[in-house]
Each structure stands twice: as C-alpha cells, then as structure tokens.
Design brief:
The chain contains four helices and no strands. It is mainly α. The chain has one domain. The longest helix has 29 residues. The radius of gyration is 13 Å and the shape is globular.
Length: 83
C-alpha cells in the first residue's frame, strides 16, 4: 500500500517542479511510470491516482511553512545541479 503522506507531498513536488495545474499533475502521474515510482508505487497503475481537487486539500493540510521548506529544498537542488 502506498503512503498517503508520500503521495501527497510527492504530488505537490511534481506539480511545482513541472509547473503543472492540479488536473495536469494527476494525468501526468497516471501516464508516467517514473512519476509513479517517485511516489512509491511498486508497479505501474494506469488510473488516476486521486481526484485532482485533492491537491488543494493536500496544500491546506501541509501548510505554507512545510511547502515553503520543500520549495527551498527543490530550489537548492536545482542550483546545485546547475554547477
């Protein structure tokens, strides 16, 4: 079973990193086995992982502080990759 917390946080990371809308995020996760692996899936699943409106719920539950911290990690990693 996939951890709901990992899927929630990972989905938000995917959304921000790829610059997608909520709907596009769930569709990309559905279509891309690499994104599913990133979220902890052990096998490819050809179905939408959750309704796209849940991303709003994920953002509210995690809070701005946690999302800002994660965004900082992503920005730092991107800067390191450019060097």
């Amino acid at each position: 079973m996939y951890s709901a917390r990992i899927i929630a946080l990972g989905s938000l990371i995917i959304k921000e990193r790829l610059g997608l809308s909520d709907r596009e995020t769930t569709l990309q996760i559905q279509e891309n086995p690499y994104l599913q692996f990133f979220l902890g899936y052990t096998t490819y699943v050809d179905e939408e992982p959750f309704h796209h409106s849940l991303l709003t719920h994920f953002r509210e539950r995690l809070g701005l502080e946690v999302l800002a911290e994660v965004n900082g990690w992503i920005a730092h990693a991107a800067l390191q990759a450019e060097r």
